[in-house]
Amino acid sequence: MTTLYDRIAGSIDGARRLAVSRLKHEALRSLHIALETSGISQNELAKRLHVRKSAVSQTLRGDGNLRVKTIAEYLHALGFELDIRLVRAGEPRKAITEGRDVRPAFSPAPVDQHLEQPGEATPVGAASLHAVDMGSDLMLLEMTIQGASNPAGPFRFEGSALMVSKPSARPRHTPPSEFKPLRPLAMK
Question: CATH classification of 4-98, choosing from 1.10.1660, 1.10.260, 1.10.3470, 1.25.10?
Answer without folding.
Answer: 1.10.260
